[in-house]
């Protein structure tokens, strides 16, 4: 049990003293970047899906 307590103490010290956390503004900027990139990616994939769907419908109606 003593090893578990020692591990928790060392983990807490590592997280509070040695880890460099980004600031709130950096986290906000990164989150906005991820959101915008996700939306652009979703629009590109959705557009490609619509084009492929329209092409397949055209082919199926022609047959």
From TrEMBL:
Pfam families: SecE
Gene Ontology annotations for the cellular component aspect, listed alphabetically: membrane
Keywords of this entry: Membrane, Protein transport, Translocation, Transmembrane, Transmembrane helix, Transport
InterPro entries: SecE_bac, SecE_sf, Translocase_SecE/Sec61-g
Bilayer-spanning residue ranges: 32-56
One GO term (biological process): intracellular protein transport
UniProt GO MF annotations: protein transmembrane transporter activity
Subcellular location: Membrane
Protein's recorded name: Preprotein translocase subunit SecE
Organism: Flammeovirga yaeyamensis
Gene transcribed to yield this protein: secE
């Amino acid at each position: 049990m003593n090893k578990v307590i020692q591990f928790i103490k060392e983990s807490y010290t590592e997280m509070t003293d040695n880890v460099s956390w980004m600031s709130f503004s950096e986290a906000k900027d990164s989150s906005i970047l991820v959101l915008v990139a996700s939306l652009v990616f979703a629009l590109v994939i959705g557009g490609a899906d619509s084009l492929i769907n329209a092409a397949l419908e055209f082919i199926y109606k022609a047959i």
